[in-house]
Specification:
heterodimer; A: 13 helices; B: alpha/beta; Rossmann fold; six-stranded mixed β-sheet; four-stranded antiparallel β-sheet; 39% helix; binds adenosine-5'-triphosphate; binds magnesium ion
């Protein structure tokens, strides 16, 4: 079983590596967006899917990472990719700060507060907070990323940067999921009292889900800033948070393949049906309602973790 | 040696005093029963010990240190584990993973070690699975390790809660109505299990309505009524105590 998924990933990698050779620039750019939203979705999946904390303000962390890169690059000309860890750090610290007082809130209350946080960040950016965010116009003239003197400029080049980042993310998050850390998030999602009563520091893990999720979104923000060379508050609206949330729930919360599929459907599919752009919201809505009724785990729901059981006796008995 | 000592513990909810000035001790290596009619405050005492509630007054001393005000997860890592009166398993996770939650507090690897999959982390994971299977074997559920918790029978779910608590490597195990919903045969096996726990060096404090179980397995019994302690002693003395008999009049038919 493990082997089959490995081959699937391998085949996927080959197809992806070849994609820019056969697609035109427009479609490569669509795939770039799919890739970025997939990473954003995976980062949100830690919070929403694994820890079960409803966060509808994820765009705030994305924005903070993007603005960190934009401000430091345009003022001090630090190469954008060098700023990746810093974007992660600022977004993570911001999450630490705002999540601490609100994580004890339950379900719907937390959801409402995170919407508020997302809006406050966006409005602060519009109001040129600290005089460094450029107000509604945003920040111009962000440098292109460079790797060993090679400037990444064309969508085809960004494609490899973004999808490599996505693959690294999948690799790391898969390990994270299948660990003491990942389990702890699931325990607190299933029953917080029982988790705490079994010795899990639930408040700490909720906070860490937010911090790691935010840090990752911050890094996507960095790449977004470098890709656009200009960013403004409107790129980080409530709608962005809704997209990320939707793709996680629709694809399969707590499931990496689910989130990847979700990103493809939510970001990629509408491009196929440009003509019906107006119907997009309605289709989303219907799909979400159908999902909530017929397939609550999403299209590709999370699968139980597998463990290698050391005792052959137990393993033989388990097989019917 | 006294392992746990409650001193003049009081807890009220609004106008209701659920636990009223209760004191008793639990000796290391003993099996102690906490009984009383419905609503007497037994579960509240457990919630005070495990830090879910904070007492209005009084002290809780475990291993010579006060644990009042400590968060629940910390109290678990100090060595007190519990089961719940209404079963609280992670229903959608496997039986093995339910027990692994108990191993958590004896493990160290964090998120970074997991992402890098350090050798120490891999080794720790392997050992945790072994220990979890050990706890499952102890309660007799090892063949169900890969089932989802919700697919277990009611009696087995109670055993799984015990296995999960056991995985935290407790010194003191507190069981809230462990025989609730069990049939006669399962209850018999539970009695053996509780004795085996004690033989493993674990002190047991239990709440139970099944008087035959309490009388057979407990060495000491504490009786609560309306939040206050009305009697304490050995099973034979408790059985004969007129105050206890009066408290149980009309509520004893579920014996
Ligand atoms: N969180 C709470 N808020 C308000 N009242 C509570 C709370 N918890 C318990 N009580 C009340 O405290 C009293 C004691 O409850 P407790 O659950 O400790 O009883 P018990 O002895 O465990 O009863 P049972 O045998 O039915 O389980 C009851 O009157 C109950 O309603
Ligand atoms: Mg009770």
């Amino acid at each position: 079983m493990m082997d089959r998924t490995k081959y699937l990933y391998l085949a996927g990698t080959v197809v992806l590596a070849a994609a820019p050779a056969v697609l035109n620039t427009y479609w490569v750019d669509v795939l770039n967006n799919v890739g970025m939203y997939a990473i954003l979705g995976l980062s949100l999946n830690l919070i929403v899917g694994h820890a079960g904390l409803f966060n509808l303000g994820h765009a705030a962390f994305y924005a903070i990472g993007a603005y960190t890169a934009a401000i430091l690059n345009s003022h001090f000309h630090i190469p954008v990719l060098w700023l990746l860890p810093l974007s992660a750090l600022t977004a993570g610290l911001f999450a630490l700060m705002i999540a601490r007082p609100i994580i004890h809130l339950r379900g719907d209350y937390l959801c409402i507060v995170t919407i508020g946080v997302g809006e406050i960040v966006r409005i602060a950016l519009i109001n040129n907070v600290f005089g460094i965010t450029g107000g509604a116009n945003g920040i111009f003239g962000i440098d292109r990323p460079q790797i060993f003197g090679w400037v990444i400029r064309r969508p085809q080049e960004f494609y490899y940067l973004i999808w490599l980042f996505l693959m690294v993310t999948v690799f790391l998050f898969q390990r994270l999921e299948n660990s003491r850390f990942g389990r702890a998030l699931n325990y607190l999602r299933e029953d917080e009292t029982a988790a705490e009563g079994s010795g899990i520091h639930t408040a700490h893990y909720k906070l860490m889900a937010f911090v790691i999720g935010a840090a990752w979104a911050g890094m996507v923000g960095n790449i977004f800033a470098a890709k656009m060379t200009i960013i403004s508050p409107e790129s980080f609206s409530f709608w962005e948070s809704v997209l990320m949330f939707t793709l996680v729930i629709l694809g399969g919360s707590g499931s990496i393949p689910g989130v990847l599929l979700g990103a493809l459907l939510i970001i990629g599919l509408p491009e196929l049906f440009r003509g019906f752009a107006n119907a997009r919201m309605a289709i989303f809505g219907v799909a979400m309602v159908a999902m909530m009724i017929f397939r609550t785990g999403g299209i590709l729901p999370a699968r139980p973790r597998t463990y290698r059981l050391p005792q052959p006796a137990a393993a033989v008995e388990a097989k019917p | 040696m006294t392992l746990l000592s409650l001193n003049r513990l009081t807890k009220s909810f609004g106008g209701l005093t659920a636990v009223n000035n209760v004191s008793f001790q639990v000796e290391g290596g003993s099996i102690v029963g906490l009984i009383g009619p419905n609503g007497a405050g037994k579960t509240t005492v457990f919630n005070l010990i495990t830090g879910i509630y904070r007492p209005n007054q009084g002290e809780i001393i475990f291993n010579d240190g006060s644990i009042v005000g400590q968060p629940t997860h910390r109290i678990v890592s100090l060595g007190i584990a519990r089961t719940f009166q209404t079963i609280r398993l992670f229903q959608n996770l496997s039986v093995l993973e339910n027990v692994l939650s108990g191993c958590h507090c004896r493990m160290k690897s964090g998120s970074l070690a997991a992402m890098l999959r350090l050798p120490s982390q891999k080794k720790e994971e392997r050992r945790a699975v072994e220990r979890a299977l050990g706890a499952l074997t102890f309660v007799g559920l090892e063949s169900q390790a890969e089932q989802l918790a919700r697919n277990l029978s009611y009696g087995n779910q109670r055993l799984l809660e015990i296995a999960r608590a056991l995985a935290t490597e407790p010194q003191l195990l507190i069981l809230d109505e462990p025989a609730g919903g069990m049939n006669e045969q399962e209850t018999g096996a539970l009695i053996t299990l509780i004795r085996r726990l004690r033989d493993r060096g674990i002190t047991v404090l239990l709440i139970e309505h099944d008087m035959s179980l309490v009388m057979r397995v407990c060495e000491r019994i504490v009786v609560l009524e309306y939040g206050a302690k009305i009697a304490e002693g050995e099973p034979a003395a408790i059985k004969a105590d007129p105050k206890v008999i009066e408290a149980y009049l009309g509520t004893e038919e579920n014996e």
